[in-house]
Amino acid sequence: MLIRKICVLLAISKCWVTVMPFHIVAPKTSSRSNHLLIYQSQDPSSESEKDIESTSLTRREVAILAIGGLAYGKVVSVAISKIKRGDAYPPEHESRVANVFKRTLVEAAAAKIDQDRPLRILEVGIGSSCRTIMRGLYDDAIAALSKSDFSAGIDLVGADIDAPSQDTIKDAKERLIGSSDFAGPLSLNVVSADLVEGLSFPDGYFDAITCSLVLCSVSDQPAAVREINRLLNRKGGTLGYVEHVAINLENESEKDQSFMEFQQRTLDPLQQLVAHNCHLHRDTDRLISELFGVQRGVGEILQSERFFVNDMWPVSCQCSGVVRLNA
Fold it and tell me: Element (H or E) spanning 188, and its range?
């Protein structure tokens, strides 16, 4: 709780000494007792000396900011370490991942025209620990396919910049095979690739694509979503995702989250710095809907939800969805 209070203090002060070089300036006149701080690059030549004057931080303020920044970085680094170890997220999050993966695979299998070909699945951002597999988040999906008498096989491909070791891949495959009574062949392969730069698969190759907490950190989110769209089968290809997103104050269920939205905006630069380019304030679900042509009827939203997982602050505002291409 103390760490979160320090982080909130940082959010209010908005002094990110670790993000970019700046000096602090304040208006010469202000109707408020507390100066409104404005941040600029170290090149002050573009500002008139008549309008602003430099101010400085006390040693105590610098210490508070430094401790707060270190505390925030520590919180994030610990969380990242847990992810790399394959540790569990809160059940409110993991249950939705499992549900989305299940719906995605079942819908893709039902829409697949060539029933003799294995179901081709791509998980983008599978991670160095194959976390979703090792946490059993595909178990319900594979069990559902078994019950539906789908036995043509499953070809699961994972893609990540930080690819897992061969031993990890072997363990993950054994975990998949041992998780159900699936009658068909099951394969797992992992490629080291950057989704933004593109994967070396032909257009429409995959029947289903899954991702979980991945699109927050890609360097170019629109390019990543377009690549996912390109890789999906145009006739029934299905995307399932669970991502953390920006608060939408226009949503009835989120209109009272203005302080959380403020924290997202303010902590975002530091989050990107200490959490491998993770962005706190992206409208991921809106972008997917737009680039999948939902309003044009090219894509169809099969399920969609926005929800909060408080124990995952500051990435507590999340969304999940399953989208199918009908072109």
Answer: strand 186-192
